[in-house]
């Protein structure tokens, strides 16, 4: 196959072919969100004449990695970070299912250029795969009184609109789009399910803190914290005086500061409950209600949702001090409004802390959603051979993408057969709406992935 050329909504692009898969990288779906466009809703990019090379990843959004990151995070400089990538088995095909990926990273870090998110394995299974970059941290999520709210969600809407109008040229079916994401990207996916603008048919939600969304008043407290750290007014005009790279560093610092000081008087109750300062905001415009409240009422989008068995085990082990006791853990959980009903025999303080938080933030909300509306539910339960990791938050990524050996959580010999099964289920759901097991409540409960 020669280097393919495809017509997008704004001009023609030239891709490349590797091992039978065509890929088109760094395609702009919106204009650069800086300069006069900073803190504004996304705008269409300028159309171009001729053929534009789409051979390398486009610029990544300004970000600073969180401590303890277990994935490589490439940085591509440049202002045009509102770009996306497409992998396709055949640009001349028609009607192929489409998967659109929203990366995780606590909404302050991550990008579509991360090697683990390479979409070639999906394309080899007959899917057109799209990954999206969007604004992060305060650039994309801070609530500012003189700027549009939920700018990152609006970036993602613009990318989905690009997919609807342009994906057929890559062999995809715009009527068979599945939106999916992990962690913060899964939370954004739930927000889009709640918004339901008719831009996708199905959704896969991997390890979302499903109730996580900020009230407007709490989001303004976060904005105030960032503004004080920067020495500017808590407005878009004030933030505009802070360089994007500096604002990215302040955004990551806010995540670590919140984790160290879960004080609702400082951050707000919804911020502390989610333990994240940058989330979709209930602003009465883009999001009229918390996404969870809308999703449990039902809807037309097919849903595959699940968690990992030990979401917060590795994080708990890294964050709790040495020598912490069971009573210390109960007191800490109590400050978060979580009661410990019983301590299973042999459970360490770290395991107790992780399990109670995992249940409150991940398992119970998923169960509530699945009881309220039709949904396929899974648990990823393969434990890492590394000590203190278990089936940790993010461990499923290499298995979903079929890209093993790129995660610091997997250990030396992650099972390829399990990756094949996980990815096959995701592809089957995208293609047919059925991942291969019964919906929750239809003679089925939670499908467990084990080696």
From TrEMBL:
- Quote the InterPro entries the UniProt record gives: AB_hydrolase_fold, CarbesteraseB, Carboxylesterase_B_AS, Type-B_Carboxylest/Lipase
Pfam families for the chain: COesterase (PF00135)
Q: Main EC class of this protein?
A: hydrolase
The signal peptide stretch is: none
Record domain Carboxylesterase type B: where: 3-435
Q: Which residues form a coiled coil?
A: none
Q: Which domain of life is it from?
A: Bacteria
Keywords annotated in UniProt: Hydrolase
* Similarity annotation: Belongs to the type-B carboxylesterase/lipase family.
Entry-linked PANTHER family:
CARBOXYLESTERASE
What name goes with this protein?
Carboxylic ester hydrolase
